[in-house]
Specification:
The chain is of the alpha/beta class. Helices cover 20% and strands 31% of the residues.
Length: 292
């Protein structure tokens, strides 16, 4: 009996060690996107800190401002396909907290990023974490990867793009692209893809003149749009149609949220029951957020 116990222990020890080693390997192999979450900020297409100013532009999705200023929201000839201040004021407070938390988390990845300086034009990049500089971005950047692939760009300085085009390939989705800059973001007549996180407390403003952005604009300070369009994530259909799925129809692990066969109406009811803010952070049953 003692011999049997001894043999069992001799087998058990390396087995446990092996399992722990596999677990550690899987953890270390987890892709960068696994820890990227915008939380309540994902319910907004445009979120500003002091104010949002939109002139002759288009926003599909919700617009929010927190903590706001004397004139937090100005709309001059813009078409907004979602809810706006003051209706979004309460939700914007929580969204701001989660946005800044995500920004701080992304900044921690600077020590393990792939250096990618310059204009980024003519580059074809796989999912990953990249560090780039304040060189003005121009030309065409292609991001090639699967539907659940995620790209993180940490910009050391201002993010400036003029006639800068970002193209998704291989099934990649713009809502899985994150641009975290520690200064201002200025996009001019560009076709841009991704979530802009301008989280700097001093220079964290976003200015768009002409062009389009597919994703989200999240700014610690101000957002100024002139003749520009922001196509929110809940309005985007992935390449190839995907059966009409939107970027937000994917969990962070790339699985379909409605994999259990629930229809859309039931899924939305369940989301509201669980406090979901992805499709409508204001708990309304109407379609004011323009994402359908």
């Amino acid at each position: 009996m003692n011999r049997f116990k001894s043999e069992l222990q001799s087998i058990r020890k390396p087995l446990v060690t092996g399992l722990l080693g596999i677990a550690a390997l899987l953890a270390s192999a987890a892709p960068a996107w696994a820890q990227v979450s915008l939380g309540r900020a994902s319910g907004f297409s445009v979120l500003g800190g002091s104010n949002v100013t939109c002139t002759n532009g288009v926003v599909t999705g919700n617009v929010g401002v927190a903590p706001g200023s004397a004139v937090p929201y100005t709309n001059t000839g813009c078409t907004i396909g979602g809810s706006v201040p003051p209706a979004t004021n309460a939700a914007a407070v929580g969204a701001r907290t989660d946005f800044l938390s995500a920004y701080a988390t992304l900044q921690l990845r600077a020590s393990s990023c792939i250096a990618m300086p310059g204009s980024l034009g003519a580059q074809n990049l796989a999912p990953g974490v990249y560090c780039t500089d304040a060189t003005a971005k121009a030309g065409t950047l292609t991001l090639t990867g699967p539907a659940n692939g995620v790209w993180v760009f940490l910009v050391n300085g201002a993010l400036t793009g003029t006639n800068f085009n970002v193209v998704m390939a291989g099934g990649g989705q713009p809502c899985n692209v994150f641009w975290a800059t520690n200064a201002a973001t200025t996009l001019t007549t560009s076709t841009f893809k991704g979530n802009v996180l301008a989280g700097n407390s001093v220079g964290g403003s976003v200015t768009m003149t002409g062009g389009t952005l597919a994703g989200r604009v999240l700014a610690n300070v101000a957002v100024t749009m002139t003749g520009a369009s922001v196509i929110g994530c809940t309005s985007l259909v992935p390449p190839g149609g995907g059966g009409g799925q939107t970027c937000d129809d994917k969990d962070r692990d790339g699985h379909d949220k409605d994999h259990d066969g629930k229809d859309k109406d039931q899924e939305h009811d369940d989301d509201r029951d669980h406090g979901s803010v992805h499709s409508n952070p204001f708990g309304s049953k109407d379609k004011r957020d323009g994402d359908r």
